[in-house]
Amino acid sequence: MADAVKDLNSTTSTSEETLTLKSPKSKLRCIVKLGGAAITHKNELESINEESLGTVCSQLRRAMVSPESSSPAKVVGMDWSRRGGDPIVSDVDELRGSDLGLDNSFIVVHGAGSFGHFQASRSGVHKGGLHLPLVKAGFVATRISVTSLNLEIVRALAREGIPAVGMSPFACGWSTRERNIASADASQIVEALQAGFVPVLHGDAVIDHTLDCTILSGDVIIRHLAQLLMPEYVVFLTDVLGVYDRPPTDPKAILLREIAVGEDGDWSIVKPTPDHMKGKVEITVAAHDTTGGMETKILEAAVIAKLGVDVYITKAGTDHCRRALRGEVHDIPDDWLGTVIRSKRK
Question: Which EC main class describes this enzyme (predicted)?
Answer without folding.
Answer: transferase
